[in-house]
Design the sequence.
């Protein structure tokens, strides 16, 4: 909750935020960092969101699982899924109506 320009640290945003990254060697470099960095970001968000979790998304099935249980907001640490055909995370989230 934003109160007069000051965040009340005791308040939490309702809903769930998910930080998405991958374990694919080198692929995380296209985003904001390694699994460890994503976990730290998730930990920081936990101070402000009712629920905060890290999702390691390496496959279409894992991405579909995220979409089928949509969070309020996704922080994506990767641009696309590992593998042959590039599945763009932002496009999949947008198509599902998930804020990212």
Sequence:
């Amino acid at each position: 909750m934003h109160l007069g320009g000051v965040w009340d640290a005791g308040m939490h945003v309702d809903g769930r935020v998910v930080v998405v990254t991958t374990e694919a060697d080198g692929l995380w470099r296209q985003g904001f960092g390694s699994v460890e960095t994503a976990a730290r970001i998730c930990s920081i968000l936990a101070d402000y969101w009712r629920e905060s979790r890290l999702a390691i998304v390496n496959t279409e099935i894992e991405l579909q699982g995220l979409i089928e249980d949509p969070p309020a907001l996704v922080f994506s640490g990767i641009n696309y899924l590992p593998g042959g055909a590039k599945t763009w995370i932002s496009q999949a989230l947008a198509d599902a109506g998930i804020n990212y």
Summary: The two ends are 19 Å apart (CA to CA). The longest helix spans residues 35-45. The CA atoms of residues 60 and 81 lie 8 Å apart.
